[in-house]
């Protein structure tokens, strides 16, 4: 923006009453000016020496060294240097003289304003105007096509521009908004705030007709003064964004929680307190586990997948005398067959060509003085079973590629969901190893056989996930609870825990609802109900099987004989009625 002081012609010489005609001619010639401002000693204007004054002196043949004093025009057209730029046009139009003398606040001459200055400045203004027009058009186009709602106000908070999406959002017409006070037509935007604060700010979530939006308020500043404001209303996809944001926050909380948990312990993380249950049989089982922990014997934990076998193993180690030692987990089903041996016993340097040359400690080495938890023991190959048996008997082993006997003091806890007895019968599991492992056996019942634990676990996981996810879920609606009670939970506690985590992640209003549960669970419920509506004949059959099994203490061969059906026939019925195997 051009200022008045930028367009005037500055005066860098002094002409007084004592200036001679010769000096005046020289100056006018040099500067090509038709007027010289004449000042007193302190720079105050006393008049002007014009071209016509000069002509007169020449016509009168005034000698060159004569002072100009008597030819000075005493009437001076003075213009203040602080004149607003906008006034120039007016000034140019109204001024009777072609050139004005410009004075500062102390009435000292600082320059002159010539006709050329005026024309040049007007030219400049019109060029600026063109540029402004172009910019305005560009801005209007941008605003019209803006994805978000945009509104602009001037220094008086009057709306100068508004974008169509904003009008749509508030259901307003352009006429109702343009040139109106923002505070009266769009008070919810609170644009006036930035006129005071002079800093940009973002509102919290606002809502209109169920649409969430946020407002960015941005002051438009010029020379440190607020000359307007820009309001940006972001509402498209904000619901999704805010949902994502919530989920992200939950995920972050979760990651933090797990990170803390991980840092807390490198050894067994869970104790008996972590095994939630109110079922009397489970309580007894925990007590047996705690007793077993005190001894040295191998413990075999049985139970379906997800019933908490690993949790029991952690707790046993934790409450044993070797709790300060390591708790090393080996999932026998997850390690490739050809690596299992080296995983267990480690290998000597150079044992393999092409492999890591350095040698490696095996799990038995690592667990020395602690506990080795062999998960999915039923999935171990017969060869390895033989090697494991030897270590259990002799408490020593050889590394792969090594000759030295390594002595170890390791307590073994094994777990499986497979029927080891059947596997022994079918020669898939070594009998001697089975007896060696089965010194103390703990059989964790499936969740469907301890229905009161479902309710208890729901409450406990709710507390846990509120902490992990940073949520504040206070309960579960009856309908959702019913679904959970009627479900079979083939994945046992693990599945229930996952379902709770999912439901709490999706829950929006402090209570878990039916629709927060996974589809497969909701859909499966009728299946369970129809399975329960067995015919009378089937009911009688089921009772007979149960009775027979109790009578022969669970021995399937004898039970089949008692019932007069084949062994495979009995297995089929057990599967059909979902009886424990
Ligand atoms: N009684 C319980 N209280 C609290 N959490 C439990 C309980 N039982 C199981 N869980 C949780 O369920 C999940 C599965 O438990 P765990 O890994 O101990 O089962 P598992 O029987 O070893 O399963 P798999 O046979 O598949 O290895 C874990 O997240 C565990 O924390």
Automatic annotation (TrEMBL):
Transmembrane segments: none annotated. Keywords: ATP-binding, CBS domain, Coiled coil, DNA-binding, Nucleotide-binding, Transcription, Transcription regulation. Residues 234-268 form a coiled coil. GO terms for molecular function: ATP binding; sequence-specific DNA binding. Residues 8-64, 72-129 form the CBS domain. Pfam families: AAA_lid_14 (PF25601), CBS (PF00571), HTH_8 (PF02954), Sigma54_activat (PF00158). InterPro entries: AAA+_ATPase (IPR003593), AAA_lid_NorR (IPR058031), CBS_dom (IPR000644), CBS_dom_sf (IPR046342), Homeodomain-like_sf (IPR009057), HTH_Fis (IPR002197), P-loop_NTPase (IPR027417), PAS (IPR000014). PANTHER family: C4-DICARBOXYLATE TRANSPORT TRANSCRIPTIONAL REGULATORY PROTEIN DCTD, TRANSCRIPTIONAL REGULATORY PROTEIN. This is Fis family PAS modulated sigma54 specific transcriptional regulator. It comes from Neobacillus bataviensis LMG 21833. The lineage of its organism: Bacteria, Bacillati, Bacillota, Bacilli, Bacillales.
């Amino acid at each position: 923006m051009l200022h008045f002081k930028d367009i005037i012609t500055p005066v860098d010489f002094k002409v007084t009453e004592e200036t001679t005609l010769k000096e005046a001619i020289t100056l006018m010639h040099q500067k090509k000016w038709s007027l010289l401002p004449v000042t007193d000693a302190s720079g105050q204007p006393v008049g002007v020496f014009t071209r016509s004054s000069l002509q007169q002196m020449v016509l009168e043949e005034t000698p060159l060294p004569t002072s100009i004093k008597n030819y000075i025009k005493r009437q001076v057209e003075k213009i203040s240097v602080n004149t607003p730029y906008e006034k120039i046009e007016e000034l140019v139009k109204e001024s009777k003289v072609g050139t004005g003398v410009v004075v500062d606040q102390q009435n000292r001459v600082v320059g002159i304003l010539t006709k050329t200055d005026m024309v040049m400045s007007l030219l400049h203004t019109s060029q600026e105007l063109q540029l402004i027009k172009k910019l305005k058009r560009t801005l209007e186009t941008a605003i019209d096509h803006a994805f978000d709602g945009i509104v602009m106000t001037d220094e008086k908070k009057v709306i100068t521009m508004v974008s169509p999406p904003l009008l749509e959002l508030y259901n307003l017409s352009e006429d109702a908004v343009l040139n109106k006070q923002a505070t009266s037509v769009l008070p919810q935007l609170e644009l006036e705030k930035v006129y005071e604060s002079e800093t940009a700010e973002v509102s919290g979530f606002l809502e209109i007709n169920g649409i969430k939006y946020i407002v960015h308020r941005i002051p438009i500043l010029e020379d440190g003064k607020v000359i307007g404001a820009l309001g940006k209303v972001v509402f498209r996809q904000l619901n999704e964004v805010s949902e994502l944001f919530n989920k992200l926050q939950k995920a972050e909380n979760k990651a933090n929680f797990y990170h803390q948990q991980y840092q807390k312990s490198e050894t067994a993380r869970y104790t008996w307190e972590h095994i939630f249950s109110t079922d009397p049989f489970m309580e007894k089982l925990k007590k047996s586990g705690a007793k077993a922990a005190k001894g040295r014997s191998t413990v075999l934990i049985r139970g379906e997948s997800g019933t908490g076998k690993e949790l029991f193993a952690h707790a046993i180690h934790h409450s044993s005398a070797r709790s300060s030692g390591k708790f090393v987990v080996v999932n026998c089903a997850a390690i490739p067959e050809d690596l299992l041996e080296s995983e267990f016993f480690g290998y000597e340097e150079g044992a393999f060509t092409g492999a890591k040359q350095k040698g490696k400690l095996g799990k038995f080495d690592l667990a020395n003085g602690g506990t080795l938890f062999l998960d999915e023991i039923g999935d171990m190959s017969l060869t390895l079973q033989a090697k494991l048996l030897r270590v259990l008997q002799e408490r020593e082993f050889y590394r792969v590629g090594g000759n030295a006997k390594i002595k170890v003091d390791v307590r073994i806890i094994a777990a499986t969901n497979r029927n080891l007895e059947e596997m022994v019968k079918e020669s898939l599991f070594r009998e001697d190893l089975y007896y060696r492992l089965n010194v103390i056996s703990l059989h964790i019942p499936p969740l469907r056989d301890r229905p009161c634990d479902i309710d208890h676990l729901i409450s406990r996981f709710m507390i846990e996930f509120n902490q992990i996810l940073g949520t504040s879920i206070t309960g579960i609606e009856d309908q959702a609870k019913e679904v959970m009670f009627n479900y079979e939970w083939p994945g046992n506690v693990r599945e229930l825990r996952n379902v709770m985590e999912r439901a709490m992640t999706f829950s929006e209003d402090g209570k878990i609802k039916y629709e927060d549960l996974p589809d497969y669970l909701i859909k499966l419920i009728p299946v369970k109900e129809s399975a329960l509506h067995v015919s009378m004949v089937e009911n009688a059959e089921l009772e007979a099987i149960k009775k027979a099994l109790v009578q022969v203490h669970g021995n399937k061969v004898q039970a089949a004989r008692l019932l007069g059906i084949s062994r495979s026939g009995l297995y089929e019925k057990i599967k059909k009625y979902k009886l424990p195997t």
